[in-house]
Amino acid sequence: MHNGAMIRGYWPEFLVAVVMSILLLASYFLRGNPAVAVRAPQATRLSEPRFLLELEYPQGKLRVDVQGQVSGLSQGRLTVTELNDLRLAVGRLLPATSQGGWKVRFYDATGAHEVAFDPARSTPEIDHVVQNLRILGYLKG
């Protein structure tokens, strides 16, 4: 009889524990979708730039890569300041149809571009890039 008296003494607590367990299970099954992080694909550029700037002129070709390494007729490496200045100047270039013996190739948000120009009659943006390369000593002529 000792067990029977013990069960009757804790009967209200036992019922509360059973009801709370049922409510917990019911709330678990009735909940909405759990708040999990949804992985969304990251947007990528249409074309990844292989170089910052490529200048083709009658004497040859000059290329500046995205890390500032200069190759072609002149070899060298731009300092961080020089690279940032050139990157800003290239960012101002506009893809336009033009003509001339010189060509400049660059990338922007829409992709790769090539602009032919004549250094005597170029846009101010292209002239700024060409003068910048001359001042740095990489472009002769």
Can you tag this structure with a few keywords?
6-stranded antiparallel sheet; rod-shaped
Q: How would you characterize the overall build of this protein?
A:
It contains four helices and six strands. By secondary structure, the chain is α+β, with helices and mostly antiparallel strands. The chain has a six-stranded antiparallel sheet, with no helix packed on it. Strand 2 (60-64) and strand 3 form a beta hairpin. The protein is rod-shaped and about 110 Å long. The mean pLDDT is 83.
Shape designation: rod-shaped
Order of helices and strands: HHEEEEHEEH
Alpha-carbon distance between the two ends: 112 Å
- Provide the residue-averaged pLDDT: 83
Count of DSSP helices?
4
Q: Which bin fits the share of residues in helices?
A: 25-40%
Strand order of the largest sheet: 4-3-2-1-5-6
How many distinct beta strands?
6
Low-confidence stretches are none
Class computed from helices, strands and strand pairing: alpha+beta
Task: Estimate the strand proportion.
Answer: 15-25%
Main sheet attributes: strand count, strand direction, barrel closure:
6 strands, antiparallel
What radius of gyration results from the CA coordinates?
35 Å
Outline the fold blueprint.
Elements: H1 2-9, H2 11-30, E1 53-57, E2 60-64, E3 69-72, E4 76-77, H3 80-91, E5 102-108, E6 111-117, H4 124-135
Antiparallel strand pairs: 1-2, 1-5, 2-3, 3-4, 5-6
